[in-house]
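Hey, quick one: can you model this chain's 3D structure?
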Amino acid sequence: MAQEVDGTHGTTVLSVVIPMYNEEEALPALVNRLRPVLDGLGDGYEVVAVDDGSRDRTAALLAAFRLGWPELRVIGLRRNSGHQAALTAGLDRAAGAYVVSLDADCQDPPEKIPEMLALAREQGLDVVYGVRADRSSDSAFKRWTAGGYYRLLRRLAGPSVPAHAGDFRLLSRAAVDALKALPDQQRVYRLLVPWLGFPSGQVSYERELRSAGRTKYPLGRMILLAADSITGFSAAPLRLATWLGGGAFVVCLGLLVYTLTGYALGHTVPGWTSLLTAVVFIGAVQLVCVGLLGEYVARIYTAVQNRPSYYVGHDTADGPGDSAGDSTGERPPAPRSVPRSRTRAEP
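Sure thing. Here's the predicted structure for all 347 residues.
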């Protein structure tokens, strides 16, 4: 059950984790909308902004905002590690009894955070998903591909995966600790969180247009996310390779019957078409099967390497002179081991 904590100032009841990569254009709008919402809660809170190796003025703007907003905490990663790795860094170091993950583009409205927190407290929930009730701001192609993605995930990982729920969610401390204890190398939280099986609820909202800047998840990145989701949570592609091999065997048997029939009837000259078709078909099936096997072998390889997903360059919650990335004393635990060779870094 969710941990109940009295909401008093001086106690970190809520942590809001926000991965950021080149968000200088969106930051002012985010701060203007988020701070009034959190100040109005009446609970102690922190905003954990994870700068994922931004190349623009994101770090400078965060430092400037922090001068007038003491609850703003900035974690700077040494290099761009990808959205899920940055989210992992924030979850690993967040101190709140409840943790909300939020993107910096304001497409997921910060104004829904009080509703999520209230629902978790009233019903004793450990997870509250932000579910998109309206995706009219997305293109028709994006809505179609997103619908297919969630249908596929629900088929592979079970009905516990909520439809149209991204990374906008609230987690209790118990849920966060459970996630931190998992040994998964490549983390896709929209699958891992439902897999935990904690009591959950939903808050619906209308997805808004991005406040500023460009999307960090173009089509290519969404395809890679889907590939990581499928290969990281299901062995179905390996079974697909087996079915492809069986289908190719059946087709080859049919071609063999066709060839023998042609030979018996004396029609042997035209056989080059069937031969070419068989060679191309079998070669294609073999390449697909080898590729699927390669994906899983690559996951084994990177798991053996056990490289961390991120290195913290600085954390404003640490005292001056602390060595970023240490896990000694009262410092937060060591970075989650997600292999760098397969972590999807931002472009």
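One thing worth noting: The CA atoms of residues 113 and 238 lie 40 Å apart.
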